[in-house]
Amino acid sequence: MIGHGGRKTGLSETSNDYPRVVAHLSDGKTRVIVCYAGIQWIVQRRQGEQWHSRSFCRTKEALLRCCGYDPHPALAALPDRIEEPCVPRLVTAEAMVSM
Known about the structure:
By secondary structure, the protein is an alpha+beta fold.
């Protein structure tokens, strides 16, 4: 999660308690999360007490391929593409001249 000033806050994406988990897959060692910035899905594998990121996906097609086409209902319900978060754009001096 991004807090005030653009700094990362809250739990780490590799934490067991990370709040943006989409699904735990049927193998019991893999999960899918939404990254803290909300711009991609991350496939993670559990090793010991920690989750390790393995794949980073922006489309549902790529995500399903990375998950071995696991039939988890939460994956099936995802949109075709994860959307960019709403971030205001900076207007440059060049852009203002053309307005």
